[in-house]
Design a protein that fits this description.
three-stranded antiparallel beta sheet, mainly alpha, 10 helices
């Protein structure tokens, strides 16, 4: 095969890979708060933020638009999805519908060993959050976020349906935008969230589908209430040091 033929054969894969990396970078910026709801951002700014070439950024944009994560505004550029009551209602409704089906499957299919490991990871986070020096644990909130969302992602993925998993991941980005816009998580707020999860995990270990669904719905309802009723300014004072990072769970 000639050099030109090899280049032609590999170019589509390279382009797809760059587009995928750009999308992954965009989602990571949502997770960390680098990109926020309602923000206007140009393609050039995205290039710098994601450290990706313009072509990859341009090819990523239709995927973001199709998912409702950004829209093109004439003379202004790209606008990240604006958070309003409709978005909050819709995003949490989609989350509830998908996760309810996921729980009904997971309560039957998850092994005892996996559930024990999930419980242990939550108890570790809870112990760290309850420690007197929790505010000095720089990795606590990032680790808690990974454990929290990791359980939800795992349950959905256990359905074995790539379409549902992809839809759930996109909706999770909407939920992250909502939480970054309206609330933050602190160690004191982290404790009840982990306790909710542990009660839910216990229902899973008991193979009690009805209780697991009930506790899941209560957990999602509680998360929605925290978003609706705890704006950012109300909880900033819970941090004792101005340099402590803030994350959403």
């Amino acid at each position: 095969m000639s050099v030109m033929t090899q280049a032609a054969a590999t170019a589509p894969d390279d382009t797809t890979s760059q587009r995928a990396r750009a999308y992954q970078g965009f989602t990571q910026q949502i997770f960390t708060g680098g990109i926020r709801a309602g923000q206007f951002i140009s393609q050039r700014e995205l290039m710098a933020l994601l450290d990706m070439p313009l072509g990859a950024v341009r090819e990523m944009i239709p995927r973001l638009e199709a998912a409702g994560l950004v829209k093109t505004v004439p003379q202004r550029g790209l606008q990240v999805a604006h958070v309003d009551l409709k978005l909050i209602r819709n995003a949490f409704q989609v989350r509830s519908m998908i996760e309810r089906e996921a729980v009904l499957n997971f309560v039957r299919s998850a092994s005892e060993a996996e559930l024990a490991a999930i419980e242990a990871s939550h108890r570790d986070i809870l112990q760290r959050a309850e420690a007197p020096d929790a505010l000095n644990d720089a990795a606590l909130l990032d680790d808690a976020q990974a454990v929290d969302w990791g359980l939800h992602d795992r349950m959905v993925d256990a359905l074995g349906n790539d379409i549902i998993s992809e839809q759930y991941r996109v909706n999770s980005l909407r939920v992250r935008l909502i939480k970054l816009e309206h609330s933050v998580i602190t160690p004191s707020r982290l404790i009840p969230a982990m306790q909710e999860h542990l009660r839910f995990i216990e229902a899973l270990r008991q193979r009690n589908a009805a209780l697991a669904v009930e506790l899941l719905e209560d957990h999602i309802s509680s998360a929605r209430s925290r978003v609706m009723n705890a704006p950012l300014e109300q909880v900033r004072s819970e941090w004792n040091t101005p340099h402590t990072p803030r994350r959403n769970v």
